[in-house]
Design a protein that fits this description.
The chain is an alpha/beta fold. The chain folds into 2 domains: 219 residues, no CATH class; 301 residues, Alkaline Phosphatase, subunit A (3-Layer(aba) Sandwich). Helices cover 45% and strands 13% of the residues. α5 packs across α8, α13 packs across α21 and α18 runs parallel beside α19. The relative contact order is 0.12.
Length: 685
Amino acid sequence: MVFSKLPAPIGKPPETHYIFTTLNRFFMLLSRFPPRFAFWILCLLVFVIIQTVDRIALMGWVSVTHPGSFPLLLLTLPVGLLDDTAMGVVLGLPFLAGMYLFASLLRRPAFRVASHALFYGMLALLVFIEVAQFVFWNEFDSRPNGIAYYYLIFPHEVVGNIRESFDLRPVFPLIAAAAAALYWPLRHRLSAALGAKILPGEGRQSLKHGAAYLVVALALLHFGPLMMGGRDRVINEVAINAQHSLLRAALTNDSEYAGLYPSLPAGEAVTMTRAMVAQDNTRPLAHRGGLWRHVDNGQMAKRLNVVLVMQESFGSIYVDDLDNQSGESISPALTGLGQKGLFFTNVYATGTRTVRGLEAVLNSFPPIPGISTSRRSGSKGMNSLPFLLNDLGYETAFLYGGRGIFDNMGAYWNSIGFNNVWDIGDIEDQGFTTSWGVADEYLFTEAIRRMDEFAKDEAMNETTKNKPFFLGLLTVSNHRPYTYPEGRIDKDPAAMRRQNAATYADWAFGDFIERSRGHLWFEDTVFIFVGDHGPRIYGAAQVPVPSYRVPLLFYAPKHIAPERNTALGTIMSLGPTLLGLLGVSYDSPFFGVDLRRVEDGKGRVIMSHNYKIAYGDGKDVAVLVPSGDTRGYTMEPGPGDLVSSTVDPAALKKAIAITQTAHAMFYEQRYHDLAGGGASLAGVP
């Protein structure tokens, strides 16, 4: 027998004796199975035990950060046990199949050594994931999700970010030691399993059992977490394991809508969405259908330059006179500029990643289930702010402080109308870099150089004289590892604090504005500052709306009067608001609106978290979840958490209408056609 009886625990207390007795019974039970199948079951047990230990640790963590949650957390143990077993079966079946399909090879010495090395590597990877998920939880209050999944696709940024953020020298030896501690007692059983003879029909029978287990496992993975039945996002995250969360992210990155989410008749959904984007200066374009409308901003268009600064992870939680409750000043520059510009205080991002922010700001498009449209193959030619400004004769360009290949962003910018796309490889002075790219101040230095070139070319060429430019910028400094050049602010970059990096990002933007004042183009330029998303997700709601709030500032002292606007809206409305400020009339299917024209009580927000979509109107929030499930909350604009409630029918219908309509317009290519439309300086369609 491969599994022999354990020796009796002589002189041990009753509790220890009970443990050894249980182990003896377990190994006796395993001895009834063929050695390979028995070893697979043993590995499954090890996997479940490790996941359970991790879950108990997370329960302790969450019980401290979410007081009063312990009773619900206890329910995660049985639900998690089912989830862990199911995930272990799914992950372990290839290993089981390999032991049978390549049995003859695995008996050879070289392949036996390779099998042991592979097994040790798998154990090390398991330990690494279990450790890494706690770091991820600290950052995102969640198991590894779509953010982690997409980061894994880009090892240059991710591996560099990890190396710069953490001292890994003591970590990897500990992981290696932990993996060795798991490998050592299992090594003989692996050798015995690989060397054992296969009885007639054994392989077919074992694989047949494995296939049956797989069917049950997949059912558990789908329905098991639903057993929680709760509205608390954090509790639900504890119930599943990291591997399940990553698998779910991989499988739902391009989710369909029909059949997974509640729906409305197509005509009704479009009619409701059209009403949501209608304002006092719009009229529908019946011949174009859908959301196409003419927006009349008058006949006094301004040919102003536009500089759009999308600030990485800069949520309102960093803004001193909004949601900053840290007790330290973080945004003195933005706060000061906000008093001299048009500052929107109740604007929300549409997602948790930069690509979601790009889709919202540049395409005025809402989140649809799964990944951002900027990463989908159908994004080429989507209606966008740069397309419209190109029609007005603008020179358009985007400058990114990192690598344009990351998250498909460079290809996306090229596909939606930017004449030029530059990234870190095009920046002359890279005085300070991290794995994500150049420090913000060097990005802004390059931006000033590029704008000087635009202005010089216009002055020298009569055909392009007075041709304005639109320059988009995406920063990277406000991102882990949270380091920046020394001597810029009175906070130590070596501390690698999130708040310190945000203060540096604020300083760099303020410095950019001050340096720009000495250039001829400054007085005729609109500077826009917007956070692409918040720094982290916090709160128990399925989609924690307050953590999505970001600042939005339009700054042009000569052209835009100071105002603090409290209209509720999303960053999807940045483009329509800018075009309104410029006095540009245009045809558009944009989902955003001019925030200055939002009537009291008529604002709305829409956002995604993984595969969930939330719609809020300032009072009620409805959350769409796959399989037709919906959740309801009440909200009040600001940093306060959502309050669980019954689903408001009106908010729910609007959530369905806008998401269903956006999904259909994207996949039917009805958001991509600019022919017959465009922008007009004269206010004529």
